[in-house]
Amino acid sequence: MRARSLRAIRRCSRIATMASKPDLPPVEDPRNVAQVAIATVAGLALAVTILYIFAVPVAGKLAASRDFLSYWATGRQLVHHHNPYDRDAIWAIEHSAGLDPRTVLIMRNPPWALPIAYPLGLLGLRAAGILWTLLLLACLLASIRILHQLHGSPPSRIHWLGFAFTPAIICLTMGQTSLLALLGLVFFLRFHRHHPFNAGAALWLCALKPHLLLPFAVVLAAWIVLTRAWKLLAGFTVALAFSSALATFIDPSAWSDYTRLMRSPSVENQFIPCLAGALRHWLRPHSVWIQYLPVALACLWSLAYFWRRRAHWDWLSDSSPLILISLLAAPYLWLYDQCLAVPALLSGAYATRSSKVLAALAFLILATDIEICFVKVTSTLFLWTIPAWLLWYLIARATSAKESTPATAPPA
After folding, report:
1. What radius of gyration, in Å, describes the C-alpha atoms of the chain?
2. Span 19-36, pLDDT tens digits
3. Integer Cα distance of 282 and 398 in angstroms
4. Residue pLDDT, tens place only, 140-149
5. Which DSSP letter does residue 411 get?
6. Hey, what's the torsion of the CAs at 289, 293, 296, 298, to 10 degrees?
7. Where are the domains positioned within the chain?
8. Which end of the chain is more exposed for a tag (fewer CB within 10 A), N or C?
């Protein structure tokens, strides 16, 4: 009887406990959809990268069809003490390497970038292509890793989005220098507080394509004057002066040849699929100044944006809108140049508390992946990408303010 009484008491206590607990659904990870989407696009990017790296050594025509060919041809001209901006000579080198005779790829980076191209001319096309691809891959991986650390190394796969970012993968496969500029930008974000001279020297990599970050540069100049960050300015000046002197030593006439190239009708009248180029093409195709109007307005906006935040300016978080606006208003911009948006997009991805917003970025990247399979990189059909990245970033920052709740910080 006593045992029966004890069993009855335990049964009643279990019933009472169950009645006191609310009927909750099973707990699920709110970011499952986002994690699956991130893993999907990252897996596709990894597959494309591995396939491409193994294809370069065995496919000579593949190496000859990349933009990298222009850097190699420029290096060949420099090694033989010829004009690196000679259109006819570059065409002959590229045509002999297998490029379509109807096409010529000219290196349009300023002369201080010539020391990068010079060593490539000492190697054969395939060997130079392999080393160049590995260099750009290292730049991308190092940039993503540093950004992950700058945001506290959270235990998530969000940083995979940086590696899977379509413009970054296209930049890698085409062999463009925009990934070097990305590394310079990330180094600046990493070192500007405690190693300002190194941070300034790293900005030389951004100067390989100075037209991409003009509003960013305007704010940087104002910040240097306001905070008296002369060491940072000294680092950039020394790096730029050294590379310019080296370029002059390699080719004393490089500056005049470069000026003549950039003023040639083939360069001034070329249509580049960016918003500034489209604006000029739609309004007055022969008026070059229209192409620089958006970036001029963006510089004014950027100064106003900085001035309101000057007292508590933080380059890691506050520079994200600057980067995206700089790319949006750039006078010349190709799809692969948008890899410079990676720091801003990862900043928004780490800030948002919405799994749907994270998944949306992954699906935007996937949509770009699909489009690049059917549309040429020179098409105006990619004009939507930069506005899409900017709109997504604004939504991500808005959701970080609306949906964030007090919680313990993620482990560093």
Report:
1. 26
2. 444 443 333 344 466 677
3. 34
4. 999 999 999 9
5. P
6. -160
7. 33-402
8. N
User: Of 110, 111, 69, whose CA–CA distance to 92 is shortest?
Assistant: 69
Q: Which residues contact 74 (CB under 8 A, 6 or more apart)?
A: 84, 85, 90, 107, 114, 117, 120, 121
CB of 358 closer than 8 Å to CB of 39: no
Query: How many residues are there in the chain?
Result: 412
- Dist CA 339 CA 133 (whole Å): 16
H or E element in which residue 214 lies: helix 214-227
Helix (H) or strand (E) holding 168: helix 166-174
CA-to-CA distance for 357 and 366, rounded, in angstroms? Answer: 14
DSSP 16-55: HHHHHS--PPPP--TTHHHHHHHHHHHHHHHHHHHHHHHH
Please state the pTM of the whole predicted model: 0.86
pLDDT band, very low/low/confident/very high, at 130 (cuts 50, 70, 90) = confident
Q: Count CB neighbours of 21 within 10 A.
A: 7
DSSP output for 247-270: HHHH-TTHHHHHHHHHTSHHHHT-
The token pair at 59 is 């496919």
CB within 8 A of 137, min separation 6: which ones? 49, 53, 172
